[in-house]
Write a structure and sequence with these properties.
Distance between the termini: 22 Å
Largest sheet: 14 strands, antiparallel, barrel
Oligomer: single chain
Number of strands: 20
Radius of gyration: 22 Å
Helix content: under 10%
Structural class: mainly beta
Order of helices and strands: HHHEEEEEEEEEEEEEEEEEEEE
Strand order of the largest sheet: 1-2-3-6-7-8-9-14-15-16-17-18-19-20
């Protein structure tokens, strides 16, 4: 276990150092030149509702997307499942599921998967453009294995390893990447939090498969040969998140979290995030209402916008507290506005055991 803790510590530190060369090297001229952009899609409803601004305070399994260091705040066991109609009316389903488990008083591990399904698409050729050859279903999957550790009562860190898979009927691409994050907590009531997370760092990816091969007929001798075309490599959408939050603890039953974050993107415009999360506990139930906004250059004008999302997010959750330890069974919802694509809805369920 000590070796795992050392790996987490050194990887997190290395990630922060690498951010200067791997993240800030980007500029607006590189917009759209990265692949595997499903890595930028948050699949979890509770952190979506605050505009992904929870770099410093989102806990549990959802932290595998925002800042893996927050995984260290899992009480005992957490199980989640969320479903999203990605891009509103586009007919794309995003399903996410995972489990987080505390294995020592200071270490938590998590396993999760995100699967994006585009539905059935008709197969066509130049000679048969009507799609009478059957159908195929493109897939984009991300498999995550995360580790988080409490180094002290104030410092937490973690790493998340990803396996990326994309495929169509006759082509596929596979890749690996990692995230690293640190959280610092201070204040008399631990109400002040800061976080930094480096995400989607990994080698380039490349498509391979029979779809790049074609038969050619040599006119000189009439022989057939197989010609394989080259596929270009593409980079992953690496980024750096920096954020802070403050907890206004009005009393034991009322709490407001104000969060702000900055995202330095390598392959799209930098973003500023603001989120609010108000929580109310009544008897054996807990309710949260959330709102957020993601701002970037040109987002207010359609002709200058390079992002399908227009910035505003909102959501809510309800948790039934069970037993003396107050384990929770929860339902959650979040929405994102996507301009011409309509509204992106995310529904989910969470089981948290203490």
């Amino acid at each position: 276990m000590k070796s795992i803790n050392k790996i987490i510590r050194y990887t997190a530190i290395a990630g922060v150092v690498m951010s200067y060369s791997s993240v800030f090297a980007g500029n607006e001229d590189r917009i759209g030149s990265a692949g595997a952009t499903q890595l930028l899609v948050n699949p979890w409803a509770r952190s979506i509702g605050i505009g992904d601004a929870g770099i410093s305070h989102v806990n549990g399994l959802e932290a595998t997307f925002t800042n893996i260091a927050g995984l260290a705040f899992t009480d005992k066991t957490q199980i989640k499942f969320d479903r999203t109609n990605w891009m509103g009316n586009a007919g794309i389903a995003l399903n996410s599921a995972g489990i987080a488990q505390r294995i020592t008083p200071s270490t938590v591990i998590a396993v999760s998967v995100q699967s994006m399904n585009f539905g059935d698409i008709g197969m066509t050729t130049v000679d048969l453009p009507d799609g009478t050859l059957g159908t195929f279903s493109p897939r984009m999957n991300v498999f995550n294995v995360g580790f988080a550790h409490s180094f002290s009562s104030s410092i937490y860190g973690g790493v998340n390893f990803k396996v990326i898979s994309e495929s169509i009927s006759n082509l596929k691409a596979n890749g690996i990447a990692f995230d690293a994050g640190i959280r610092y907590v201070t204040g008399e009531q631990d109400q002040i939090k800061f976080g930094i997370a480096l995400k989607n760092v990994g080698p380039v990816m490349k498509y391979k498969g029979d779809g790049l091969s074609d038969q050619v007929n040599y006119l000189t001798n009439g022989n057939l040969a197989t010609l394989e075309q080259r596929s270009a490599t593409f980079e992953l959408p690496s980024l750096l998140n920096i954020g802070g939050s403050y907890d206004f603890n009005f009393d034991e039953k009322n709490k407001l979290i104000v969060a702000a974050a900055f995202t330095a993107n390598s392959f799209q415009k930098d973003q500023y995030r603001l989120g609010l999360d108000y929580g109310l506990t009544i008897s054996k139930a807990a309710f949260n209402i959330r709102a957020g906004y993601i701002a970037e250059k040109g987002i207010f004008k359609t002709e200058n916008r390079s992002n399908a999302l227009t910035g505003f997010t909102a959501g809510f959750s309800a948790d039934a507290l069970v037993g003396k330890k107050k384990s929770a069974l929860g339902l959650e919802y979040a929405m994102r506005l996507a301009g011409q694509f309509g509204i992106i809805h995310t529904f989910g369920a969470t089981i948290s055991l203490k």
